[in-house]
């Protein structure tokens, strides 16, 4: 009996960067705690006005505040997610706590700052070991077969930004980017947005971001 009919594909595997924090506020708490390509959890240590964005090659998703949502949040743990039109099971839906280092599936030491997925063989081996029977598919050129790339960006401050105001500011930024002769990298966008959205209105703010890469798992 042939084995052709037994071939199957595994769910995608998630790779995460460690959290990066910058800004002028020092008391806003640990920030992003866990994330995957479609959801993110964060913790703040004091009441603050919160902005959550998801930046991918498809654009900037305004996740929070959304329509009818109060931008002011109390201290504690909070969660956000973005809808998807199809189910996408991802290995490692609840990765390790970012406050103690990178997630357990992280290949950060061999990813460049712009999330270009060019791991060395030892990186692939580490991911394979972490995901047991779900090896990562690698193209002939040695690069991971990437499904989705992006960043979660969390901005906390004492400057209130309503959902409508945030949308206007984001539209203005996106329009400016379209007029630029060279498109900005995702990392550049993530690093610019906090200063543009709240930095000109307050000196008490902090921003946190985590990059994610969703890669194909190898077919058996």
Provide keyphrases for this structure.
220 residues; alpha+beta; seven-stranded antiparallel sheet; three-stranded antiparallel sheet; 3 helices
Topology:
Elements: E1 13-16, E2 20-23, E3 31-35, E4 39-44, E5 48-56, E6 59-64, E7 72-73, E8 76-81, H1 121-130, E9 146-157, H2 163-179, H3 186-199, E10 205-215
Antiparallel strand pairs: 1-10, 2-10, 3-4, 4-8, 5-6, 5-7, 5-9, 9-10
What would your notes on this structure say?
Helix content is 19%, strand content 30%. The chain has 220 residues and is of the alpha+beta class. It has one domain (12-215). Strands 1, 2, 5, 6, 7, 9 and 10 form a seven-stranded antiparallel β-sheet that branches. A hairpin with a 2-residue loop joins β5 (48-56) and β6. The longest helix is centred in the last third of the chain and has 17 residues, at 163-179. It is globular and about 45 Å long. 34% of the residues are buried. The model is unreliable at 1-7, 86-97, 99-111 and 123-135 (pLDDT under 50).
């Amino acid at each position: 009996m042939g084995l052709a009919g037994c071939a199957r594909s595994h769910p995608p595997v998630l790779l995460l960067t460690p959290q990066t924090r910058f800004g002028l506020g020092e008391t806003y708490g640990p920030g992003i705690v866990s994330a995957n390509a479609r959801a993110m959890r964060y913790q703040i240590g004091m009441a603050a006005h919160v902005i959550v964005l998801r930046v991918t090659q498809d654009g900037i998703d305004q996740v929070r505040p959304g329509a009818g949502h109060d931008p002011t949040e109390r201290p504690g743990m909070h969660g956000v997610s973005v809808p998807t039109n199809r189910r996408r099971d991802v290995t490692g839906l609840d990765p390790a706590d970012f406050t103690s280092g990178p997630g357990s599936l992280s290949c950060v030491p061999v990813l460049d700052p712009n999330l270009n997925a060019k791991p060395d063989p030892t990186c692939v081996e580490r991911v394979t070991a972490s995901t047991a029977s779900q090896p990562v598919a690698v193209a002939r050129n040695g690069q991971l077969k990437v499904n989705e790339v992006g960043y979660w960006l969390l901005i906390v401050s004492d400057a209130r930004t309503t959902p409508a105001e945030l949308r206007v500011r984001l539209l203005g930024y996106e329009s400016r980017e379209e007029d630029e002769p060279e498109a900005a990298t995702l990392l550049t966008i993530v690093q610019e947005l906090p200063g543009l959205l709240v930095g000109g209105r307050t000196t008490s703010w902090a921003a946190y971001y985590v990059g994610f890469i969703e890669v194909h798992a190898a077919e058996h």
